[in-house]
């Protein structure tokens, strides 16, 4: 490479970096404005643009602490866990362990016995795109029983009863958000890899991407944020149990940006799996779905996104493969409207 071409490469790098900084200053301004209006809600945001990382955060870890939230502060990513699980499903396809159009019957624990009319009906892709038609957990009842740990009472026996007592898939082939679907996907992964879901996600995602602050079973750490319900009351982080593959991973903005960078890298294993998960598996007049991903398309952009809400925190992840950017927004209060409004404003005024 001669001097002139080297100079052009350096100039292009500086130009791209400056462009990314300019975008993120606008994003930070939106986040700051939201915090000034809602100082009771702590927030952490990570952004990647052409492989360059940017972070901002506002608020304290808790009301008693003067420690500020930062890119390494731990949040519940809740149902964003589902895109980690769907990425693992896509990796299992790449590994030759499954096919997306395989029926789920032979991959589930032997305790599950589908009634005759439901056998060889539901495919793995149906579970991953929320169109299996299976009945789901009754969250209203679970919350009534234990508002702090509503999934704590869900056991393998609970799931067996739901599956074995199901006699009709009345809305099979139609979109209906499903926690039990992603719980079953976790069990399918355990079956084909002969490991626990915890081990699989560590071996296939967490360790390869050096996501050192992404936690599953043990999340009693000093940098953990405090979760708040919509009324501002303290809410416990959900504990790990059989439904983990549907929503119980904890992480931070830094690690989720690492995940986004891998997703946007077509040569990385996670990136190749993400491309599989981006294939449209369901479409109606309201939405398009990949494997765990909502797909939003306009005349210039295709956006992939997933939101997450626990009882005490809200989050959303979004990326544009063609434009090579991705963003993660983490709130320390359950406030789905705020996190969606923030993403909409960021996208409409900065990223679009």
TrEMBL record:
A GO molecular-function annotation: hydrolase activity
Database matches in SUPFAM superfamilies: beta-lactamase/transpeptidase-like
Location of the Beta-lactamase-related domain: 37-338
Keywords for the protein's UniProt record, in alphabetical order: Hydrolase
Cross-referenced Pfam families: Beta-lactamase (PF00144)
UniProt cross-references to InterPro entries, sorted A to Z: Beta-lactam-related, Beta-lactam/transpept-like, Beta-lactamase-like_AB/R
Family: Belongs to the beta-lactamase family.
Protein name: Serine hydrolase
Lineage: Bacteria, Pseudomonadati, Bacteroidota, Sphingobacteriia, Sphingobacteriales
